[in-house]
Amino acid sequence: MNCLSCKFSIIVPIYNVEKYLETCIESILNQKFTDFELILVNDGSTDNCLSICEKYAQSDSRIKVINKENQGPFMARKSGRKEAVGEYLLFLDGDDSCTEDLLSCLNKNINECKPDLIIYNYKRIDKDNNYIDTNVSPLCKEKHLFIGDDKKEIFKKMIENHKLNSIWIKCGKRKLNSDTETSEYDDVVMGDDIIDSLFLLNNSERILAISEPLYNYRINRNGISRKICTKYIYDYLKVRKCFFETIDSLNYNDLKHPFVLRYIHGVCNYLMKLHILNNFSQYKKIYQDVKNSQIQKTAIMYKKKWGFANSFAWVMCNPIFYPISKLLAKLYYKSV
Known about the structure:
Number of helices: 12
CATH architecture of the largest domain: Alpha-Beta Complex
CATH superfamily of the largest domain: Spore Coat Polysaccharide Biosynthesis Protein SpsA, Chain A
Radius of gyration: 21 Å
Distance between the termini: 48 Å
Number of domains: 2
CATH class of the largest domain: Alpha Beta
Strand content: 15-25%
Structural class: alpha/beta
Order of helices and strands: EHEHEHEEHEEEHEHEHHHHHH
């Protein structure tokens, strides 16, 4: 790779997605705007992903391949950032793709508005690349520039709607990305997008939101977010603690209550899902860890404002109600 500088660095974390990887890479190489580098990070794949990456790298000097041990997408993106030379960074998952005008649209908006960060829209596709629908952006229907503390509205929308959490709908200046800031979250697997997004937003003064759907998100019913894993609840606690500390540092005090409501709903949902694993001693320990966590202690300070549903759900998470909650959990999650 001879590129010393370019407009965009596109980083693709890759793990066992050989079925879709060529579609992903081709969508990038077919960009109308060509001043970019493509960094393919093979995160310890056990299929043919590495061979596919190396094949493309041999035919295009803009492509760089990083081969590393499996540590998850957060660390894969971090590895890519260390090698990036572009003025702006953006990310694609290895089983997704982008429209051919992704970079040309971003470049046009960068020239016009000089943003630190751009948030764009996406379409959903199925496993056969068939179009499902276009996401209705919770942020804006038309182009809008958020300057300074105007970004409070973005944090508000992130609390209300998970669709803004994804890092793959964000393109930010490389200098905004600080791996030192995020080092304590290196082991996070679930919610890693939120960590990256929070630090990007916090470090940005000019944030441009556009409505164009420039990303193709593949619906994967076997993905990480659909699995039941005890580690995920610890990741959830760590990520939400980071979120709360971020809005606290920005003095967005009126966002704390709605944040806590979303948090307690989420943590109860995770705990209820764990009933399906049918391991009481394990559940009892996790419940106690949640109860003693800093973010849960913070949420308890707002307990009078939880509302009946959240309060009842938290009570039912108590291990003394385990037999009843296990039955309810199995009935509920079997139906969804």
